[in-house]
DNA sequence: GTCTATAGAGCGATAGAC
DNA sequence: GTCTATCGCTCTATAGAC
């Protein structure tokens, strides 16, 4: 069993993604990755010609996942139902570690600036956010700042819940569905007849 | 003017916080910090006996800021108005770089695990979140997961807006006030008479 | 308070045996 | 497909001069 194996590339990507999420790209060494795979640094170089190439593989997976989500979304009728389903499907990806990759992209670590993939990935993310923001909100790619903030918060909700669910016993499904509801309210705020905030605010 | 100065410690903390935010703690070297201060690495060691001590100083500032916010909040009458003002004051701190420190804490980088300050800081953050979550929501420190998610999202909204406002020309005050409104809605959701989400969701 | 110089460890990456 | 061994570099940290 301790001999050569053929799934090292996939295992390496899973392990690397996890370590990048914990320590950041620059804080993760090839030694750490190799140790978890029970191989040596040199063996890693058989599969990838550089550390940056490992990052590229990880980002490629993320990019593909988001692109598939976009393709699906574009074939659906536009509306709150489709947006909710987009968020639900994104939340599913959360379980397979998409959160870590998304954070790598969104926290724009300088490591990504030198990645040719970075532009493509960011493009997909922007398109996905546009899909979630709905029609009328965006004007040619430059969105209403508040609406774009709400979309990013919706995704952040799924990330946070996904992380927490992973550590919780039982899968934390109530938390995930609560997060999905919150995310939907953020991108499609329910009509409310409550008084304005400023009206409720009396200075100390 | 190129001689000795007395404010190197403060400057180092500001610079270090900024670099930690950009590259993470492990991705930031003392050479980077020293270069921005126009001194050498060795000079840095006159002010701090280790890299970890620089991190400790930065976290100490953060811890103090949050503690002051908690003290103020506890002297106020409990209610949505106080919670809004707590968020507003937190958003102000955002301009002075608290976001970066908060992220260092919240992303629990392993660097923090070996910091004796970490427990204290995390304690303050939990207390602050409890204050924001309001009464009845928490049951002895262990909160309703959905409510705690909403609080974390509210803070995340202020972080995102603060970051964006820093890069925007004009200070982006509309964005900041929009973020404050969103944050308030998250911790004190307006009563709504809209239909349930599941009722709006029709599968594809 | 800042400098030069250096120690010792770990880094990414390569060469070559098996 | 994985190994050992090694290169050149950067890292944190220290010693000691000014």
How much of the residues of chain A is beta strand, in percent? under 5%
Largest interface: A-B, 47 and 47 residues
* Spatial separation of the terminal alpha carbons of chain A: 69 Å
What overall geometry of chain A do the principal axes of the alpha carbons give?
Answer: globular
Q: What's the mean pLDDT score of chain A?
A: 89
What is the strand arrangement across the widest sheet of chain A?
A: 1-2
Number of E strands of chain A: 2
Helix content range of chain A = 55-70%
Show unreliable segments of chain A.
Answer: 198-204
Assembly annotation: homodimer
Strand and helix order of chain A: HHHHHHHHEEHHH
| Class computed from helices, strands and strand pairing of chain A | mainly alpha
Number of helices of chain A: 11
Largest sheet of chain A: 2 strands, antiparallel
Radius of gyration of chain A: 20 Å
Observed structural traits:
204 residues; homodimer; two-stranded antiparallel sheet; mainly alpha; DNA-binding
Topology:
The structure is a homodimer of 204-residue chains.
Chain A: H1 8-23, H2 30-37, H3 41-47, H4 51-74, H5 80-94, H6 98-106, H7 110-113, H8 117-133, E1 138-139, E2 142-143, H9 145-167, H10 173-187, H11 197-200
Antiparallel strand pairs in A: 1-2
The structure holds a DNA duplex (18 and 18 nucleotides).
């Amino acid at each position: 069993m301790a001999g050569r194996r053929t799934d090292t590339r996939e295992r390496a990507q899973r392990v690397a993604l996890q370590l990048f999420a914990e320590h950041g790209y620059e804080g993760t060494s090839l030694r750490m990755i190799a140790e978890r795979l029970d191989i040596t640094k040199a063996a890693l170089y058989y599969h990838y010609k550089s550390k940056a190439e490992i990052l590229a593989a990880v980002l490629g997976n993320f990019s593909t996942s988001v692109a598939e989500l976009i393709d699906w979304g574009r074939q659906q009728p536009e509306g709150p139902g489709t947006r909710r389903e987009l968020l639900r499907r994104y939340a599913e990806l959360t379980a397979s570690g998409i959160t870590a990759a998304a954070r790598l992209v969104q926290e724009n670590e300088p490591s990504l600036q030198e990645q040719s993939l970075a532009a493509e990935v960011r493009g997909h993310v922007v398109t996905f956010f546009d899909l979630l923001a709905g029609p009328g909100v965006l004007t040619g790619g430059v969105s209403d700042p508040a609406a774009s903030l709400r979309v990013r918060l919706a995704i952040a909700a799924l990330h946070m819940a996904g992380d927490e669910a992973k550590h919780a016993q039982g899968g934390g499904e109530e938390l995930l569905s609560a997060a999905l509801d919150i995310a939907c309210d953020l991108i499609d705020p329910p009509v409310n007849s409550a008084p304005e905030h400023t009206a409720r605010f009396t200075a100390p």
